[in-house]
Each structure stands twice: as structure tokens, then as C-alpha cells.
Amino acid sequence: MIDYRRLSRIADSCTGFMLQALLPSLRYLTSRSAPAVAATGLGSASVAYITLSDSDGATAVRRVGLSTRYIVPVLLDWKLHELRVWALSLDADEERQAASRTHTRIAERLRDLALRQGGIYIKGAQHMCAQPIIAGEYVSVLRTLMSYQATQRTDWDLQTFREDTGLRMVDAFQSFDPEPVASASLASVYRATLPDSTPVAVKIQARTVARFLQVDLWTIELYYDLLACLIPGLRLGWLAAETRRHMNEELDFVQERRNSEEAAEQLATEFPRSRVIVPRAFPALSGPRVLTMEWIDGCRIDEVRQRLPHVNVAAVAELVQRVFAAQLFVHGFVHVDPHSANLFVTPTGALAVLDHGIYRRLSDELRVNYARLWLAVLAGNRADIQRCTAALGMPPERWKVVAVMLALAPGMDIPESGNARRRLADDKSAARSLASLTPAQRAAASQRAMALGGGIAAHSAFLESIPRDLLLVLKANNLLRFVNDQLGAPVNRFRIIGEYAQRGAAATSRPSMWLRINTAMAPWLERHARRSADSLSRD
Questions:
Q1: Reported pTM
Q2: 286-299: per-residue pLDDT in tens?
Q3: Fewest Cβ atoms closer than 10 Å to its Cβ: which of 8, 16, 50, 280?
Q4: Taking the CA atoms of the chain, what radius of gyration do you get in angstroms?
């Protein structure tokens, strides 16, 4: 009997290998001249067609063509903007306004492309709008995709479940609702009940995402390279690499289950389960593309005012900031995608943390230096900000950009003299002043960060210098700021950050891996030694 599932995986591997082999040649073409757009677009479509089946190949060609249809106008629009600025001799204000209009048009085209293509294009747009430094137009336009709802065929999901678990729905569950309760860019979630009547959530990956993953990633990388060719100084290779890394992680539901189990153990040391919940997984009903979890009653955190009016919003907002501050500054195992769709609030006011696909395990050095950087920013200590910026692998002369990027504080006074320094432990005024910023002031700070960057080339070089794990931490910081704003900014998140950063900076080392393994195995070793001793005594 032919194992079509195995053949399909082999074909996917061969497809990825062919695309990776051809990519350097096509990148060379794009680096030589802008007219290579048509040639590379045709080349990508041809590779997609010859490496996939007839029906999939035709679909892949259409996807490449659709991307080209949206991306080429983006490139032309930017070049025309540069030409207008040069030809009309615009002053600084006029140039800023023209740039804003251009950025808005480009962001709208990228949003429309993501909506047409779905899958990783949605994830890419979500990742882009959460970057620590990006023009405000992209944030406001692309942030609407954070609540994106996709549609996929239920019969395909049922087939995926059977392939991954070896079970039919009727055999695995007492009941199964074929109408998904949520459908995101990569997966849909269904409600079901186990034979013992336990309610569960069944997350099933969209088949089309994995099918066209290599073609879509390759197309995105190709156009990143083309953007770098047409816009001198723009370097997006790091973003392409991060997109590939994220997607491979998010599509691995086995690793997501492991992440959730470790996060649950970690958070149990800080918060009771009555306050913070990580849904338990059911390994026997899960697989690489299926994750069956404990069902959590509640709503998204951005809907809590409407759907759970009796819940104390300020308490929930504080809990969110504490959970992620503990992960980041104290434990170093961090959920780096904390947007509102991944945070649920139960009717009792507990916080449920969902979607554990993307985590980062920070080194002690990075974790401690990041904690010290926050303390320096909150204390207004310029020398310490510069020192910590350099310790984190970023250019120390960019300390102002780093400070604004972290706290979005346009009016921060960062003196050089020791007498003028404000210490968080003694004076909470810095944290209070940062928390009192209005949305308009934060937007102005974001624009200031862009201006401090010194142009596209300097901007790109700076982002490229940020360690990849730290970049995701900064992205998570932006998402948490947005969640707090969605709830009406009821808590001073800087006070909470300062509290946990002090704990993190003091905890300069965690137990080594071997010590943690030995500690975990100690009860088992003790039982084994006792049984051996009993056996010897009987002999």
C-alpha cells in the first residue's frame, strides 16, 4: 500500500531543498539590477510550478503572481516619493507629510496583500507592526490584522486530525462541534468533549499553510532582497531569517505543547492557578499539527469590559504585566507573542495565557543586562544606559534610541551628573511620569525614535545589530504596552517592570542545566536506591 503521507513529506523536503539551492542565484540577479523584477517573478513562479503537483503548482504560481502584483507598486511608490522630494525641493515639514502619505499607501497595500494571501503573510504583517522602531503608519494600518479571522475547510481539519492522531473524531470525543470557535492565520480551534465529558479545545493547523510554506517564504525573501536593491541602505535579510524561524516554530505543535508545559511549571512558582492558567494539553490527542487542550471559559482580554463587566480590569491589567515581567526578568523563558488574542480572562478574573508556539530562552547574561538597562532608563542614568546598551551588543552611541524605544518617553531628562540621577529604589517619579504619557505623546515618542535613527541606512544597521532574541523581547514589550492601552492603561506598568527588573538584576545566575536535571530526578533516584537496598536486604 502506498504511503501518500510519507511521499508528501518527501516531496515537501525536496521542494524546500530546490528552493534553497536556487535562491542564491536569484538573489544575485536582484542585486544586479532593478529590471530583474520580472525575471525573478517569472523564475519564482516556474520553480513553484515544477516542484509541486499540477494543482498545487498552479496555485503556487497564482500566489507568486498575486504577491508581485502588490509588491511592485510598493517599490514604485517609494521611488516616486524619493523623486518628488528631490524634484520639488520640499522642506522638512512637507517631506514629513509626503513620507507619511507614502507610508500609509504602502501599509495599506501590504495589509491588502496579507488579507488576500493569508497564512504567513498575516503573521509577517503582525510581526512587522510590533517591531520596536517602525513608522507609525504601519502600526496603525497593520495592527488591524492582530484580530484577523480566517476560514478553512472543516473536512480538511478532520483529515488532519486523523492523520496526526490515528483516531476519528467519533472515536476520540463524545461530541465535536464542527463550527470553529476561532480561526486565525495558521489554525482553527474547535470545541469538543472527551468521553468522560471533559470539555477541550482542539487546535488544528491549516493544511494550506504547510503546503505552500516554502514557496511563500521564498517569495517573501526574494522581495526583501529586491527592496534592499532599490532602496540603498535598507537591509532586511535579518527580518527574512526571523520570519522563516518564526514560521517553522509556530507550525510545530509538539514544541508548542512542550513550551506550554514548561511555562505552566514556571508560572506556578509565581502565581496560583486560580489567578494564572496555562491550559493543560492532552498528548494522546495531539500531534505535529494538532493540539488538544483544556477548555477555558472566558473572553479575549480586549473584550473583557463588554463581556465580563464585573471583572476588575485594573487587576487583570496588573496581572498581565506581572506574568510577563516574571518570565522575562526572573526566569528567562519568555512568551514573545503576547497580543490580545493570546490572553483570555475567565469569569473569575483569572488570566489564561494561550498560544505557546514562540518562546525564547534567554541567557543569564542577556536577561540580567536587559533588567539593568530598564533600571537605568527608569532612573534616568545616561552612563548606565550606555553601558547596558553596549553589554547587550548594540552600539552604545545609540543609547537615546534604545531609551525611547523601551519606554517611548519623549521628554525624558537623562542627565550625566551623578547628583542629578534618580534611582528607582528611592524615587518613583520617573515611573509615574512615564506612565502618565498620553497616546499622542507616545506616538510623538515613536516618531522621535524614528528621527533619532538617522535615516534608513542607519535604521537598518541598528536593527540588524540587535541580538535576535532581544529583538523579539522588544517586540513583546510593544505588544504588552498595546494590551495595557486597550484596557485604558489602568496600571503603571513601569512600576511593575522596575520591581521585577530589580529581582532579575539581583538574580545574576540560575541553576545550571545539570543541576536542574539532577534536582528533577532526585525523587526518582531516591526511590530507585531504596528499592535496590530493599532487594539487597531480602537477598
A1: 0.73
A2: 999 999 999 999 99
A3: 50
A4: 25
